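Please annotate the following for my students:
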Amino acid sequence: MKTPYEYQKKYRKSHPEVRRRNRKKNYEQSLEGARNSKELWTQHEDAAVLAHEITDRELAKKIGRSVQAIQIRRARLKKGSE
């Protein structure tokens, strides 16, 4: 009997268009409301990023940054505060 992992592995190999479509969807969602990356971060945005009270996707829509930008900013802020 095959394990669920083996089915998943087979599905991923046989359906590259599914992976491509999901990757594209996630990328588009992360860019919704994103703005110029050269804009400086405000203290309010930094506080919201560090508080982590809502999901990164919700925060991205709220402050107009990409999800990846939020994750990178959080890592840099934590690294600088240690």
Q: What stands out?
A: The longest helix spans residues 16-31. The helical segments are 4-14, 16-31, 43-51, 56-63, 67-81. The two ends are 50 Å apart (CA to CA). DSSP finds five helices and no strands in the chain.
